[in-house]
Amino acid sequence: MSKPLPQPNVVTQRFWSSCKDGRFEFQHCKTCGHSQFPPRLTCTACHGADLDWLPSSGRGTVYSFTVVHRAPLESFKADVPYVIAIVALEEGVRAMVNLRDVDPETVGIGMPIEVFFEPTEGEYPLPQARPR
Ligand SMILES: [Zn+2]
């Protein structure tokens, strides 16, 4: 059994295409200036539909995290224990990613991270984070 792969839709297609090009992008509302992630059809602050895409530096810090000890699927069993983190990117948006290349015992709130892209068996790489 393989791991689930990204399934882009009309709202997320731009994000996944950017990942293929090595960029982590988020939405920015041209009407009110609000930045948001994950991608949505409209602005979560003003409900406007005039959204732009901006690239993130990929740098940020751990906002919150959990250590997974019981794999949710057979295909994740070899990975446990692993860290799922909500990271706060420099641009002010937060994203949920796997925190890789780290001993789960050493992860803490505020740990500096950087986003990188891991190839998958599918068309789109997955954004991941690691300590920087
Ligand atoms: Zn807005």
List each distinct ligand once.
zinc ion
Annotated CATH architecture: Beta Barrel
Low-confidence segments, ≥5 residues, pLDDT <50? none
Question: Number of helical runs?
Answer: 1
How many discrete structural domains?
Answer: 1
Overall pLDDT score: 97
The string of secondary-structure elements, in order, is HEEEEEEEE
In helices, the fraction of residues equals under 10%
Task: Please report which band the strand proportion falls in: under 5%, 5-15%, 15-25%, 25-35%, 35-45% or over 45%.
Answer: 35-45%
- The geometry reads as globular
CATH class: Mainly Beta
Class from secondary-structure proportions = mainly beta
Strand segment count: 8
> Termini, distance in Å?
32 Å
Indicate the CATH topology.
OB fold (Dihydrolipoamide Acetyltransferase, E2P)
Strand order of the largest sheet: 6-5-4-7-8
Q: Gyration radius, to the nearest Å?
A: 15 Å
Brief summary:
The chain is mainly beta. Helix content is 6%, strand content 37%. It has a single domain (13-131), classed as OB fold (Dihydrolipoamide Acetyltransferase, E2P).
